[in-house]
Write a structure and sequence with these properties.
alpha+beta; single chain; 7 helices; about 50% helix; 3-stranded antiparallel β-sheet
């Protein structure tokens, strides 16, 4: 059984039999130690006399996000309009989405902004893509940038 030193909670030792012996002879050393409770989870970290459970780190799922939005009829309609009206911009959206899955969303967002400025991206599509991005744990900065602001 593990015990921690009350004056130094980082000092954790297996003192099961030793504590029993100290208690049997009323050794005051037994009062310096407290039983360490079992860890509440495998991720728990012992510190300061208690278990701390670190927050789960979510990993953006760019590849899954890309697959889902590329399968949306509304995205395909938009890409068809982009291809017809601005073929170079089409490549920026498609390649930019792949770059985003590798951690660099600048090309995609710049192309997305350009398509929005040209009137090829509807507010409904923005909302849909933002919702899906949230479901796939994409960064808040990316989700916010999907709604471009137009300076007038």
């Amino acid at each position: 059984m593990n015990y921690y030193r009350i004056t130094d909670p980082a000092d954790v030792r297996d003192l099961g039999e030793q504590i029993t012996a100290w208690l049997a002879v009323n050794n005051p050393k037994a009062n310096d130690w407290a039983e360490q409770p079992p860890a509440p989870s495998v991720d728990a970290v012992w510190g300061n006399g208690q278990w701390d459970i670190p927050e789960a780190v979510t990993v953006p799922r760019w590849v899954d996000f890309s697959a889902v939005i590329m399968a949306l009829p509304s995205v395909n309609l938009m890409l068809g309009e982009v291809l017809q009206n601005a073929p170079g911009l089409y490549g920026g959206l498609v390649v930019g989405l792949q770059n985003a899955s590798e951690g660099d969303s600048r090309v995609f967002l710049n192309s997305w902004n350009a398509a929005y400025t040209m009137g090829l991206i509807s507010p409904e599509l923005i909302t849909t893509v933002q919702e899906i991005a949230g479901e796939y744990d994409l960064p808040e900065a990316f989700i916010g940038a999907l709604e471009p602001s137009i300076d007038t």
